[in-house]
Design a protein that fits this description.
Layout lengths: L7 H16 L7 H8 L4 H9 L4 H12 L13 H6 L4 H11 L2 H11 L16 H15 L32 H16 L7 H8 L6 H8 L4 H15 L1
């Protein structure tokens, strides 16, 4: 399984991203939820993010400001608020008019149509990985398990934060959006390019900040940084550690 290549810290990031999405009442896992999760990560990459203003509280504030809370937010999850504002479209005003015109149940059903609930097997990140990279990961997994015994994974603590959608519960069976799946693919590519035998939080972040659309670039910009700047800082930190 692809997930076996993830370090315990990286597994925690992916699982807690799903918990954050459920807590915010979102019925999908997008790159923004992964960003919120990695912002809480420890280790060198967590230090780099926080040194650049990427903290859990600030990321969550931007996600809620741009995407809102509740089941209907899936209708707006792939929209770029800043890009729409540049052409005169106020996404907040549009969302307010839609939410005033339709009941929460109708909005939730519409969001579920856009992001249908998956079978549990779709939660496995390997589903987002092309066959070529999957074969590479299989070889790495076999090499790793040949040198270590299988140990039961440590319990993953629940994700916490300031905001909670009304009636929301922490959910783990949520579908990854297309952009989130692309981030996972880029994560594996980052590990492969560096000839690493594991997939760590640093690879997740490097894959995540390569995304061009969705909320992540605009959240980073609002927090005073960008994907390229963070990439340089992360690579420099790991180069020094090496």
């Amino acid at each position: 399984m692809m997930f076996e290549l993830f370090t315990p810290e990286a597994r925690t990031v992916v699982v807690q991203a799903q918990q954050h999405a459920g807590r915010l009442g979102h019925r999908y896992v997008g790159p923004e939820h992964l960003l919120l999760s990695v912002a809480s990560a420890g280790g060198p990459v967590g230090v780099v993010l926080r040194d650049n203003g990427i903290t859990p509280d600030r990321v969550e504030e931007e996600i809620v400001r741009r995407g809102g809370l509740g089941g209907g937010t899936g209708l707006f999850s792939d929209l770029d608020q800043d890009a729409l504002a540049a052409i005169g479209i106020d996404l907040d005003a549009v969302r307010a008019r839609i939410e005033a015109a339709f009941s929460p149940e109708v909005l939730t059903r519409a969001a579920e149509t856009l992001h249908p609930q998956p079978r549990p097997s779709r939660l496995n990140p390997r589903r987002a990985i092309p066959p070529g990279l999957r074969r590479w990961a299989q070889r790495r997994r076999l090499a790793l398990t040949a040198h270590r015994g299988r140990a039961l994974p440590a319990p993953i603590p629940p994700a916490t934060g300031r905001y909670h959608a009304p009636g929301a519960a922490t959910r783990t069976h949520l579908p990854f959006t297309t952009r989130a799946k692309k981030c996972l693919e880029l994560t594996v590519r980052e590990a492969k390019a560096r000839h690493e035998q594991h997939i760590g939080v640093e690879h997740l972040v490097l894959g995540l900040i390569r995304t061009n659309g969705g909320l992540v670039p605009s959240v980073l910009l609002a927090l005073g940084t960008s994907g390229p700047l963070l990439r340089t800082a992360i690579l420099d930190r790991y180069r020094q550690a090496g």
